[in-house]
């Protein structure tokens, strides 16, 4: 007799809503003003993980809409020009969505290279926008201080891809 | 046939296309938001309502995370106070001995300064009220340096108010809600602060760039700055009080003059907001453009009586000038008295204070004041 198999549906709540909430919560926690031995907490752009992983997991209408709202949250929370991080994250999402067929099936170094290129591109875009708005170029050292922690978040993006890519059996 | 080779494969294209449409719409929306978010003349944001609503909600959440940090810091200080009490006591005693001399000198200088101010009739700046708050959230990225603090408009905080710590200037208020305010730090890439170099009184513009040490730009005067000079707020433009300590000048690795901020000496947790009203807040443009001042450029034509009075005053002034010139000419042509004659003795080289005029052998012609306005010029001398 064939036993029934429990089918776990991985819906938008699992791969869009919960990760977005976790990213926002982590951003708020890292915004706590702690200074120990003269050092502050790092301030990575955590939603960069979502912007890279979501289009690779599955194209969706909900994901970019949520990502746009997450970007607005970052702008308001960090007092950035409204729309700055929304634009940069959407640019990453759009780029990965366009190159989805190219990146599908790749792992390891190639995937990290793609993530690094997307991160650097997003920061370059933010740098240009801020420079034009303020008529003043931000310093490079603090820029590196935010790019590096963001790059170090790649294992989380990789885990999300492993966990959710092809996870919905209805799409097999 | 595998399920992925079935008809669901066709879903892929429309999903990607619809996602792309959402991305394009979102990018256009973000660009519109960027273009619409401008800085107001007071230093706030044109999207102040949205930012204010968000900050009113984010403030309590940030406070929840900041509270344990504050408690841990207080506990560490409490315990540390016991361990380092003896060393701290010795250091403080030595500091008190040094400061006693400075205190006496400060009292004497204050006394002298008060007398000078009274003699010169200087209008001194009134004391500025303050509101104390705590930092509850922090943005430290290269594109924005800002803090949320837990005081707002209920305590009188307004956009543009300067924020200081016990060490020096930190930044300015850029957004206010009833209980939470946003502080843009001096290091923010959009921050511009007029400052002066204390030693030379030269002016400069402190420009943040997202790093810890903002740049000094537009330094007035050659050689007006050197490493170690104290930098203070200049008060130019009326946005900040004059003389708030900012930092110390230092040469950066890029060759530009930078300022090591005094506020970096300790954690910026407790801050004071100076409830200082800028010139723009004290005086409304409508008051400045009120008719009494605006009418100065377009004074009405004098009537007949006023024109007659003006002509009379001009004639009297010209007559008085002519009489004075006549007296001067007569005095220059007067004969030389022996007592006032030039002497060859050394003592006589000094001018005699009792003599009416120093006499010379051939007096030069005395300057005669010539009237510049004709007597019949209507209203010309008025």
TrEMBL record, chain A:
This is Rod shape-determining protein MreD. The chain crosses the membrane at residues 15-37, 49-74, 80-100, 112-134, 140-161. Keywords: Membrane, Transmembrane, Transmembrane helix. It comes from Brevundimonas intermedia.
From TrEMBL, chain B:
GO terms for biological process: regulation of cell shape. Pfam families: MreC. The chain crosses the membrane at residues 15-35. It comes from the Bacteria. Residues 315-382 are annotated as: Disordered. The keyword Calcium does not apply. Residues 315-360, 369-382 have a biased composition (Low complexity). InterPro entries: Cell/Rod_1, Cell/Rod_MreC_2, MreC, MreC_beta-barrel_core. Signal peptide: none annotated. Keywords: Cell shape, Membrane, Transmembrane, Transmembrane helix. GO terms for cellular component: plasma membrane. Residues 136-273 form the Rod shape-determining protein MreC beta-barrel core domain. Belongs to the MreC family. This is Cell shape-determining protein MreC.
């Amino acid at each position: 007799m064939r036993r029934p198999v429990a089918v776990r549906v991985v819906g938008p709540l699992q791969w869009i809503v919960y990760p977005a909430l976790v990213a926002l919560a982590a951003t708020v926690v890292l915004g706590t003003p702690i200074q120990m031995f003269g050092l502050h907490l790092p301030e990575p752009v955590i939603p960069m993980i979502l912007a890279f992983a979501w289009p690779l997991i599955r194209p969706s209408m909900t994901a970019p809409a949520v990502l746009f709202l997450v970007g607005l949250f970052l702008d308001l929370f960090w007092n950035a020009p409204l729309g700055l991080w929304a634009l940069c994250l959407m640019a990453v999402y759009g780029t990965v969505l366009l190159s989805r067929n190219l990146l599908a099936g790749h792992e390891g170094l190639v995937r990290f290279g793609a993530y690094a290129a997307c991160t650097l591109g997003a920061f370059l875009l933010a740098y240009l926008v801020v420079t034009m708005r303020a008529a003043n170029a931000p310093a490079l050292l603090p820029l590196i201080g935010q790019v590096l922690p963001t790059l170090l978040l790649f294992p989380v993006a990789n885990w999300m891809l492993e966990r959710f890519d092809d996870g919905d059996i209805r799409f097999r | 046939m595998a399920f992925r080779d079935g008809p669901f494969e066709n879903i892929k294209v429309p999903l990607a296309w619809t996602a792309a449409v959402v991305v394009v719409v979102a990018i256009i929306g973000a660009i519109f938001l960027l273009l619409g978010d401008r800085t107001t003349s007071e230093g706030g944001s044109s999207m102040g309502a949205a930012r204010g609503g968000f900050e009113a909600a984010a403030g309590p959440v940030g406070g929840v995370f900041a509270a344990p940090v504050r408690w841990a810091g207080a506990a560490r200080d409490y315990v540390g106070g016991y361990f380092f009490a003896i060393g701290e006591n010795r250091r403080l005693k030595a500091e008190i001995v040094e400061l006693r001399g400075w205190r006496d000198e400060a009292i004497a200088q204050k006394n002298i300064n008060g007398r000078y101010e009274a003699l010169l009739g200087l209008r001194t700046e009134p004391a500025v009220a303050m509101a104390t708050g705590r930092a509850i959230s922090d943005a430290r990225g290269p594109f924005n340096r800002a803090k949320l603090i837990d005081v707002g408009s209920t305590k009188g905080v307004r956009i543009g108010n300067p924020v200081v710590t016990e060490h020096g200037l930190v930044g300015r208020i850029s957004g206010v809600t009833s209980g939470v305010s946003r502080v843009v730090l001096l290091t923010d890439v959009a921050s511009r602060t007029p400052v002066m170099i204390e030693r030379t009184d030269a002016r400069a513009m402190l420009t943040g760039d997202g790093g810890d040490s903002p740049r000094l730009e537009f330094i007035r005067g050659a050689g007006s700055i050197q490493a170690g000079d104290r930098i203070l707020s200049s008060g130019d433009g009326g946005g900040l009080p004059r003389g708030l300590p900012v930092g110390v000048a230092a040469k950066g690795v890029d060759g530009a003059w930078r300022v090591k901020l005094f506020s970096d000496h300790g954690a910026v947790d407790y801050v004071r907001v100076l409830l200082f009203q800028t010139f723009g807040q004290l005086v409304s443009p409508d008051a400045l453009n009120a008719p009494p001042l605006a009418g100065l450029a377009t004074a009405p034509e004098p009537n007949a009586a006023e024109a007659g009075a003006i002509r009379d005053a001009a004639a009297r002034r010209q007559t008085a000038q002519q009489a004075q010139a006549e007296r001067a000419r007569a005095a220059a042509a007067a004969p030389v008295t022996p007592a006032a004659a030039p002497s060859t003795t050394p003592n006589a080289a000094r001018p005699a204070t009792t003599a009416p005029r120093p006499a010379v052998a051939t007096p030069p012609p005395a300057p005669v004041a010539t009237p510049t306005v004709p007597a019949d010029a209507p209203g010309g001398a008025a």
